[in-house]
Amino acid sequence: MIAAIIRKELLAVLRDGRLLVLAFSVFAVLSGFFLASVAEHRQVQQEKRAVGATAKEQWDTQGVKNPHAAAHFGIYVFKPDSPLASIDPGLRQYTGQALWLEPHKRNEARFNPAADQGLAGRFGQASAGFVLYALLPLLVIALAFNAVTQEREQGTLRMLHSLGVSATKLLLGKFTGLLLAFVVVLTPAMLIAVIILYQNFDLAGDDILRLSALSGVLFVYYAVFAALAMSTSIHFKSSRLALFVLLAFWTGSVLIAPRLGATAAEMLVPTPSVAAFWAAIKQDIQQGLANDGDHDAREAAFNAQVLKQYGVARIEDLPVGYTALKRSFNDNYSERVHALHFDRLRDAFERQGRFVHIASLLGPSIAMRSVSMALSGMDLAHQRHFEDEAEQYRDYFIGLTDDWDRERSHGAERGAQGHDADWGSVKAFSYTPPPLGFALYHALADLLVLLAWLAVALIWLLFSANRLKP
Amino acid sequence: MSPNKPLLEARKLVVNYKNHRAIDALDLSVPAGCVYALLGGNGAGKTSTINTFLGFNRPTDGNVFIDGESPEQNPAAVRAKLAYLPENVALYNYMSGIENLSFFCTLANVRISRQQAHDLLANTGLQADAHDRRVSTYSKGMRQKVGLAVASAKQAKVMLLDEPTSGLDPSAANDFARRVRQAADLGMAVLMATHDLFNAKQVADRIGIMKAGRLVEEFDAHTVAHDELEHKYLAHARGSL
């Protein structure tokens, strides 16, 4: 019986000219956005590769200079985006993709606290991802808003009841048929997307897994809208009223909830301004963290410890370069302070993200958006992973130049020199993005929210079966 | 066919819609092979009676039975035994007559082959070239033939008709009446709500007049004269009886 209802629903969609026009429109819009995204993604990646190669070449050919001066020349590193970023560019434009690595501190431009607004600000921005999470639910609503009201209005519901069709089986059949019809309508656009991805990028196994996971999560997301739309169609006698209510829900879920959530999160977990953030770091370096003493006190203690370690009375008598030693000491302390403040800031962003979830009560779109960004490798967690790797690389190459500076000078003099052979021996930054498991782990809360929405929607649908009267 | 055990039965049936009494102490019995026509004006309680047999209304008091089963207590068994044709037989416009018939048969747990579906439609008089056409192009009479084909495929014991000839041209109404009569002659019990006196007199074995939810008068359709029936019907409608 359910199979017959599913087949009937499929026929209804496929033979309804208006829906085919709608499906073609979705196909055109999705393909258009996706092609534009792919072109932009390719261009960004090419620019990154070109700039990265140029920067490395300039680094390698600095000529003869002091190793620390060479370190100040700095190295640019870039986050290689997943091909899925062309579907969902996520927080790219807010977090930035290039990091300028140099001695003494983390790069200022890499983590702008003001960019926090991006989490909410991104909603409404056109991209293939926007079509998938914001516009396609409208197609689901268009398919489902009159699923039951139309049967009631046309009298077929009475016919079905008179045949003894159980309301639960009828609804499950209609729900499944509707989802299958939606998949049929969407399949051409998804196939085009996969072909374009395949032709433009070297898809790794993890990319394919991520793409599959994204498709699965999107299916759950659309199922939520389908179940809610069908339930609404049962509870309202007129198709028009059901449509009005569903459009209001869509507006709340897609447009209002993200902004409401971001505003609430900013109020509940305030983050410092850019100026305050850097001033606090500067102050902690100068005055020291708890019980560490201020800069002068720390340096005096360090001097005493170095003289004792090398068994000399004066700095001038040290067998290694004192300036490099002192710089390493100060840099280590500076890094500790930076790490503390950056971790606090990033923890604040994560707490904000959790508060944004409160707005998920208004709809599943926030959770879907977050999972989409995570699976595309364009969320905060992936950015943090990249920055941590870049920071490790900064430690590596700054440490190397400090070693050269210390070993090639003595006492207080600063005559150490490095050559192109030294600069060329610095390994290039190589970043391997984390696997799918990393994305799923960090998107777990959002996945649970989506599953909770699905459970609620299905329970409501089954509960609504009791109200299905002809 | 002689009247015997009732397939359709209402005993002291009362149905209230909030504060309005739609059916008031209705006693009704339709045996196999009998066509019972319920006459009455709008709001008399005809459709409410049919809806109660269908299980769409819950009796406020009293009982209804179809072949001894209560629609309230055993809806699946009851619906397996009945066929329902409303004034406008609701079909899916994007499907053909054959597809509609097959779909409704499947939902009724009746498996039929495509050839059987064609035969069933042909037996109702639906022209062969219409079988594979979408029903959006069908007239009301053609839709009713699809409904009759569903009833035939189900081998229903009971047929409930709600204003079946309303809006049909005389020829189609006559054809429909003939086919209802044939179904009854094969042992089906038919309850037909109608405004159409001529049709009722032509096809029915018994005729009842309803007014304000009550069955106010019953006739043997074979013995009552048309003029007498018309007179009584109009008198009840005017309230002079």
UniProtKB/TrEMBL annotation, chain A:
An MF annotation (GO) of this entry: ABC-type transporter activity
TM annotation in the entry: 20-39, 130-149, 170-196, 208-229, 241-260, 439-463
Annotated keywords: Membrane, Transmembrane, Transmembrane helix
UniProt keyword annotation of Transmembrane helix present: yes
Pfam name, any one: DUF3526
A GO CC annotation given for this chain: plasma membrane
Protein name, as recorded: ABC-2 type transport system permease protein
Automatic annotation (TrEMBL), chain B:
InterPro entries: AAA+_ATPase (IPR003593), ABC_transporter-like_ATP-bd (IPR003439), ABC_transporter-like_CS (IPR017871), ABC_Transporter_VariousFunc (IPR051782), P-loop_NTPase (IPR027417)
Pfam (any one): ABC_tran
Domain ABC transporter intervals: 8-237
Organism the protein comes from: Methylobacter tundripaludum
Keyword Cell inner membrane: no
Family matches, as Gene3D superfamilies: P-loop containing nucleotide triphosphate hydrolases
Keywords noted in UniProt: ATP-binding, Nucleotide-binding, Transport
GO molecular function, one term: ATP hydrolysis activity
Protein name: ABC-2 type transport system ATP-binding protein
